[in-house]
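Board notes (copied after class):
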Amino acid sequence: MTCSAEGHNSAGRSAPNKRRWQELARGLIRASHPAPGLAVTSLVVVFAAGLGLRFGQVVLLGAAVLTGQLSVGWSNDWIDAARDRSVGRKDKPVAVGTVPVVAVGLTASAALLAAIVLSSLLGPRPAAALLIGIAAARGRTTSG
């Protein structure tokens, strides 16, 4: 893609607008707390594969756990946004304004909905276990 003299690329988007979307995406990734989320998801996938679950079940379980972990990470930054801002947390994208509070709230809600749908496809007992874990983790994210 090339930019014109007016700052528009060949797709018709302005370069500053594209940069803002990239900044928002990077901020949402940071707000998701990716390291713990990927660690938990990886452990669950390895454990499930070791138990001999079919490939499709392992993938579905991994997707359900990952979306649950995203929900937990984003809800943490959503719930703590005012506190993080008031204490000057520079490491939190919502606190510094890179990610709007409403955006992180919507992504947390969408991830939770995806986790509910994906976990329900695993069956009632695995879904219950996964959703209880998500509820417990989200309960820990409240400021205290």
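Comment from the instructor: Residues 1-8 have pLDDT under 50 and may be disordered. Helices lie at 15-31, 34-50, 55-79, 81-86, 93-96, 101-120, 124-140.
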